[in-house]
Design goal:
33% of the residues are buried. This protein is mostly beta strands. Helix content is 0%, strand content 48%. The strands form 2 sheets. A 6-stranded mixed sheet has the order 2-10-9-4-5-6, with no helix packed on it.
């Protein structure tokens, strides 16, 4: 069964950068897409970005478009989320997950990791 483990979170000042990693055990190309989500305190979990296995296409929520970049290293079986120009509103626990279904059907993502905390504060 697929397992995902996130890492790379931390405390960063506004305007700073972080790179999150999602290490995948198992063959991530067996899944249609790997996605990143986040959940801030008191808020519902929201989709951030995803990368589609078959063609490598990437998709972003409007709130992060132009600031975040998702990528993957198939050999290392890692999906990255490069986050630049971070804002206090990006503070959340970030999770990665996988889906066998349509990559923008967020209800079908499974195999959630434990999450990694990102805090943007001065």
């Amino acid at each position: 069964q697929l397992q995902l483990v996130e890492s790379g979170g931390g405390l960063v000042q506004p305007g700073g950068s972080l790179r999150l990693s999602c290490a995948v055990s198992g063959d991530m190309l067996d899944y249609n897409a790997i996605g990143w989500f986040r959940q801030a305190p008191g808020k519902e979990r929201e989709w951030v970005s995803c990368i589609v296995s078959v063609d490598g296409s990437t998709h972003y929520a409007d709130s992060v478009k132009g600031r975040f970049t998702i990528s993957r290293d198939n050999a290392k079986k890692v999906v990255y989320l490069q986050m630049n120009t971070l804002k206090p509103g990006d503070t959340a626990v970030y999770y990665c997950a996988a889906t066998n279904y349509y990559h923008l059907d967020f209800t079908e993502y499974k195999h959630w990791g434990q999450g990694t905390q990102v805090t943007v504060s001065s």
